[in-house]
Design goal:
The chain is mainly α and 326 residues long. The chain has 14 helices and three strands. The protein is globular, with a radius of gyration of 25 Å.
């Protein structure tokens, strides 16, 4: 444990006679759930990964752990083989789990066992040779510029909630924020003079994103004539407030956007659709991919490249429709 700063809660009970005493893992029997707890602690404290990521990883690993215990009576990570994990994945696939969800489990197993093996807490890494399932890449849905315009203009601004909702939707489209980033944003992160907002995204990374003049005007109107009517004694520093003066949840933001869009005659609109639209419209109007990557807060530019594919698909569709030999 001293090598890593993470000593699992190992029980000094059963010494395995058939394992090398040179390995720390061979001397102590410890349970899968304790190993998972230590790994999640590592993700939180050393890697600084988001609570959502920690939760998703925990669910994936505990699902594997429960299956190993119920099917093979395995509770010790050292007893897990590649075949065990492959059988579990096959079972989940047979249950109808989508390839993208299976990939999440594979990635969780890989980083979990790599962590244990690197710290000599298991003798072998059973997940190292697991292949990642191939996933068809679907192009994200987007609204076109006219639809976004009509959507925003349809929101009345004659009451505090209308001012709030219009400012929220202007901000999501102008800055490409994730809905969680918007819901968590505080007043001191807004710099309206400079027309920028500072947000904290995935991996606890902070970035500064432009607002644009229309979003700034909508936010100013909300801060002046909307937010003061929602404030109460318990209100904190969040920009966007619920009718009770508290922070809006991401689920509530999703509901607001869906309802406002339906009033504008648009079906199937959700917060991330505005983020996709933001990036696609920037790409279509010639913005540099690295700049879009920075504004979206993508760690890897390959994630951002999908927006160039969206624009190419749109151009091809226009060509097919209007070119005499398309």
């Amino acid at each position: 444990g001293g090598r890593t700063g993470f000593a699992p809660h190992r029980k000094e009970c059963n010494v395995f006679p058939n394992r090398s005493r040179g390995s720390m893992a061979a001397v102590f029997l410890w349970r899968m759930n304790e190993a998972i707890d230590r790994f999640i602690l590592y993700l939180a404290t050393e890697r600084g990964l988001s609570e959502n990521y920690q939760l998703s990883t925990r669910i994936s690993l505990e699902g594997l752990g429960d299956w190993l215990e119920s099917t093979h009576r395995i509770t010790d990570p050292n007893a897990v083989t590649t075949q065990h994990i492959a059988d579990y994945l096959a079972q989940r696939k047979a249950d109808g789990l989508a390839p993208a969800s299976i990939k999440v489990i594979v990635v969780a197993a890989k980083i979990f066992f790599r962590f244990l093996h690197a710290r000599q807490l298991v003798d072998h890494d059973p997940a190292a040779v697991l292949p990642l399932p191939r996933i068809e890449q679907y192009l994200p849905e987007t609204l076109n510029e006219a639809q976004v315009e009509a959507f925003i203009e349809s929101i009345p601004t004659n009451d505090p909630l209308g001012l709030r909702d219009r400012a929220m939707i202007e901000l999501l489209y102008a800055s490409g924020l994730r809905v969680s980033e918007m819901a968590n944003a505080q007043l001191d992160q807004l710099h309206l003079e400079e027309k920028v907002i500072r947000v904290t995204g995935k991996g606890n990374k902070t970035r500064v994103v432009p607002l644009g003049s229309k979003a700034r005007a909508a936010i100013e109107a909300y801060l002046e004539n909307g937010r003061p009517h929602l404030v109460n004694r318990r209100t904190k520093g969040h920009i966007f407030l619920s009718v009770r003066g508290g922070k809006l949840t991401t689920v509530r933001c999703w509901q607001i956007i869906k309802t406002r869009a339906e009033h504008a005659g648009l079906k199937g609109v959700y917060p991330h659709l505005l983020r996709h639209s933001f990036a696609t419209h920037l790409s279509g109007n010639g913005a540099d991919l690295r700049i879009i990557q920075e504004m979206l807060g993508h760690a890897d530019i390959s994630t951002t490249q999908i927006y160039t594919h969206v624009e190419q698909a749109r151009l091809k569709a226009v060509h097919r429709q209007f070119h005499p030999r398309g």
